Amino acid sequence: MTTKAPFGSGQAPRPVKVPVEDTRHGITRTDEYAWMRAENWQEVFRDPARLAADIRAHLEEENAYQAQLMSDTAGLREALFSEMKGRIKEDDSSVPMKDGPFAYGSSYRMGGQQPRYFRKPAQGGDEEILLDGDHEAEGKPYFQLGGIDHSSDHKRLLWAYDDKGSEFYTLRVRDLATGAELADSIESTGGGGTWASDNNGFFYTLLDDNHRPSKVFFHQLDDDTANDRLIYEETDPGFFMSVGGTRRNDWIMISISDHETSEYRILNAADPLGTPLLVAAREAGIQYDLEEGGDIFFVLTNEGGARDFKIMTAPVSDPVRANWTELVPHQPGRLILSIMGFRDYLVRLERLDGLPRIVVHERATGEEHAIAFDEEAYSLGMAGSYEYDTDVLRFSYSSMTTPAQVFDYDMRTRQRTLLKTQEVPSGHDADAYVTRRLMATAPDGEAVPVSLLYRRDTPLDGTAPCLLYGYGSYGITIPASFNTNCLSLVDRGFVYAIAHVRGGKDKGYSWYDDGKRAHKQNTFRDFIAVARHLVDEGYTSHDRIVAQGGSAGGMLMGAIANMAPEAFGAIIAEVPFVDVLNTMLDASLPLTPPEWPEWGNPIASEEDYRTIAAYSPYDNVGAFDYPPILALAGLTDPRVTYWEPAKWVARLRDTKSGDNPVLFKINMDSGHAGASGRFSRLEEIAYTYSFALKATGKADVKPAT
User: Fold this and answer.
1) Staple 579 to which of 330, 466, 537, 618, CB 3.0 to 4.6 Å?
2) CA within 13 Å, CB half, 95
3) Which residues of 166-228 form beta strands (DSSP E)?
4) pLDDT value at position 506?
5) Which pLDDT band holds residue 9 (cuts at 50, 70, 90)?
6) What is the mean pLDDT of residues 682-694?
7) Cα 472 to Cα 128: distance, rounded to the nearest angstrom
């Protein structure tokens, strides 16, 4: 690095080394920090107090060190939090969605951390609070609501919560007439359930000790949970599983999938004790999703070489694959993301030329029309519906400069009705900002999209700091949507950038394929290419770029730190998946077998082992002059376990050259999503932003107004 970041001095933790050798495929590696992985990690997820004393002491020492180096940002963090909170309408409410005689929605009270769920008469009337998240969270250091589903007779509420951060959800049933909880309470579920058609029982997934949803059960109300009937058990630990219903309340759908293969088993919702029907047996690389359509199912699938997906139909009487008929053919470059069926329409969300659009297909005539917008970059999503027999579709729209808008769209008349525009109480002048879509050239010649947001008065002469965000895994597309939080950086002169790197589906399914397994290095090279392009175009300079990513995006941060430390002024890695090789070698961890299609199976394949070993951040730490690095984690995180960033930070400090600090902040009361509660989450964002400002020497800059 050419400049030293303005961090104070302090004694960084230097944990003991206990070398452990591991030999696979004739290759021996040594892990000196393997001891940080608690042997009783399953118990720790359920009860954090069970963490071994030596590991807890080390994590607390890390927290003390980062607090010391960041102590001078206390006032800045308070100012950032105040700004971000000021952009939130504290007593905000969703637009209620109609379901028969009622309309259901969610809201917050002034100062409230958790949402409340309510309903009101569909024809107008007073709100009735069905569930108060603030009340349920009282006295708990962590609380997160899961799935919430009212019964079709509107008499009961099925809801779930997690009070550890480990994503073991407890299911409860509430009588909506009295507000009382029924005796039906089930622990260690996947976070939700779905009602049988008679509303006298519900289906749910149960997590095993390794945090995998391996079984679907049916629970009859007022019966002992010991009598719950096993509907289906998935014996392959490499597959995720969930259970859901349909808006017509006629089918229960068990979805089984990994990242490239899927399978459905369906059950008549009126026959909860029946045997699920297999629709199409899993076949490696073949994906399909089912959507209701009355006497047919709509099938979104890639079978037959439809890389960007096509839509088929199947008769509900016999929906096996042999009976599928093509409705919307495959069109290369047009990625169909999701579908939604109505009595008279089929609606699809697709991505064409890098931008989303909604297409309405009239079932009787086959006529189609699209809903699209004109900005360079924007986010568009279908908000769904409780009702099947309706002409109204709800969707949302935003861009990096346009606050979120919610519309009801009449599919018959093609009229859109604006129901709500996101309020920014402290004020927002969209004309003060510019959003751009750029293309950076990757080393292999691919054009990598970049979404930008900056103030119109920001000098574009290389002096502006830049926060560059990236993810690039699992086919997830990071939308160019409105984000009130990042305005605290943008108003201080930052350019806010999103690198739409390979591994997402920003440019179609091939963009995903070209960023996974043997092609994973493309993700990292794309991100570095974006950073260099922003410098070449005068938006920023390398020592002013703060790279940020979380989870698999945190792995991206670890990789680019090793590959091009000179290209960045600082790096923020949130819950970073940085110990990729060790985790993919540990089949007991919750997500390892289901993740093999994404990363490869280094247990079975030497080629996969060598591919992962070549980029796994923990295994490639070197004697480099790294920029300042901030890692964040949660103790009870079942997705990226706490010991991954803990080990990575320790090895970085022990191996790197230069004096730039490596900070590690771990939330001892939360998991993958960080602190629970909307304001607690803002405090965490204020912390990361204060690090970005401090690392770029902008901690004293006041926001423009």
Assistant:
1) 618
2) 17
3) 169-175, 181-195, 201-207, 213-220
4) 93
5) confident
6) 97
7) 42
d(C-alpha 496, C-alpha 656), whole Å:
29
pTM of the complete model: 0.94
The answer to whether the beta carbons of residues 184 and 563 sit under 8 Å apart is no
> What order do you get walking across the sheet with 310-315 strand by strand?
288-293, 296-301, 310-315, 325-328
Q: What is the distance between the alpha carbons of residues 124 and 108, in angstroms, rounded to a whole number?
A: 20
Stretch(es) of the chain classified as CATH 2.130.10.120: 140-286
- Kindly report the average pLDDT of the chain as a whole number: 95
Listed as own residue / partner, the contacts of 612-616 with beta carbons closer than 8 Å and 24 or more positions apart are 612/580, 612/581, 612/584, 613/27, 613/29, 613/581, 614/521, 615/520, 615/521, 615/524, 615/559, 615/580, 616/578, 616/579, 616/580, 616/581, 616/582
Residue 441 pLDDT > 70: yes
How is residue 389 written in tokens?
Answer: 């027999």
Token digits of residue 399:
């861009």
pLDDT at position 638 is 87
> Which secondary structure element, helix H or strand E, spans residue 162, and what is its range?
strand 156-162
Active-site hit among 58, 211, 361, 672: 672
Catalytic residue among 162, 258, 491, 637: 637
Other C-beta atoms lying within 10 Å of the C-beta of residue 569? 26
CB burial class (10 A; 0-12, 13-18, 19+) of residue 180?
exposed
Residue of 498, 213, 231 lying closest to 376 (CA atoms)? 498
Strands 570-574, 545-550: pairing kind: parallel
Helices 53-69 and 643-655 meet at what angle, rounded to 10? 60
Instruction: Mention every residue, 6+ apart, whose C-beta is less than 8 A from residue 467.
Output: 486, 489, 494, 495, 496, 497, 546, 548, 692
Q: Could you give the CA distance from residue 411 to residue 504 in angstroms, rounded to a whole number?
A: 30
Residue 135 DSSP SS3? helix
Residues of the chain with CATH 3.40.50.1820: 51-85+427-695
CA atoms within 13 A on the CB side of 287: 19
Please check the confidence at residue 2 and state whether its pLDDT lies above 80: no
Q: Which CATH architecture has domain 140-286?
A: 7 Propeller (2.130)
Is residue 201 helix, strand or coil? strand
Largest CA distance in the chain: 72
| Cβ-based burial of 332 (10 A; exposed 0-12, middle 13-18, buried ≥19) | exposed
Which among 213, 215, 195, 211 has a CA at the least distance from the CA of 203?
195
Q: Which of 551, 616, 676, 690 is catalytic?
A: 551
> What values do phi and psi take at 46, rounded to 5?
-85, -30
Tokens 């409230």 identify what position?
Answer: 112
Confidence of residue 1 (pLDDT cuts 50, 70, 90): very low
pLDDT attached to residue 447: 97
Burial environment of residue 705 by CB neighbours within 10 A (0 to 12, 13 to 18, 19 or more): exposed
Give yes or no for a contact between 149 and 117, defined as CB atoms under 8 angstroms apart: no
Q: Is 672 a catalytic residue?
A: yes
51-85+427-695 has CATH 3.40.50.1820 classification: yes
**Beta pairing partners, 297:** 292, 314
Instruction: Determine whether 637 is an active site residue.
Output: yes
